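Interim report to the steering committee. The following record documents the input for Putative acetyltransferase (187 residues).
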Amino acid sequence: MTFFPIETKRLILRKFTPADAEATAAYQGLPEVARYCMWEPRSLERVRELIPRWIAMDGTGENSEGIQYAVVLRTSGALIGDVVLMFEDLAARQGQIGYVMSPAFQGQGYATEAMEAVLAVGFGQVGLHRISARCDARNTGSWRVMEKLGMRREAHFREHAIFKGEWDQELVYAILEDEWRAAQGAN
Ligand SMILES: CC(C)(COP(=O)(O)OP(=O)(O)OC[C@H]1O[C@@H](n2cnc3c(N)ncnc32)[C@H](O)[C@@H]1OP(=O)(O)O)[C@@H](O)C(=O)NCCC(=O)NCCS
């Protein structure tokens, strides 16, 4: 089974290649992009180290970590971001999504469009039962995407961890397979 590529109205979600390193580091290296991510701004060298792991994340194999996609524009092929579906507990069919878009392409609905397609793969081909997402409460763009995807806010943790040197405010969102299917039917 292959989970690549996925085509949406404006995007293609495909496997990373080593040639994507510069374009990826151009946005993953920005402090404002990394601000609410679990990682610090990434150098070109760091991105080059990570790409083989992302290529290996193709959703197949017993120990697969998940499925990692590079997000490119259909019109130009330009790489504008990356999205992931992590497999958290395959026995309980749990997954978690993540997404990062280059600032030049934010606020145009691209993350939502990409993640709608990723949810369809997660609940469809992969057969997940529940997909969750986490973000800092100050990361409005991120939790807005979760709400537009029809995910429910399940938790708002206040100061339950130190995140990048200060108290966090963590939101947890999730959607169950039957909730997702009902929403598909309604649309
Ligand atoms: C989170 C992120 C992926 C969203 O990507 P995107 O392509 O801009 O998302 P969309 O355009 O699909 O939706 C963003 C929504 O948030 C809103 N939004 C974004 N920033 C906002 C802000 N500062 N205040 C209020 N609303 C904001 C947008 O208006 C849009 O909502 P709308 O369609 O109702 O107007 C992008 O901002 C990003 O890459 N951020 C840096 C990396 C990151 O934090 N990733 C998530 C880690 S948990």
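The radius of gyration is 16 Å. The committee is asked to note this result when reviewing the revised timeline.
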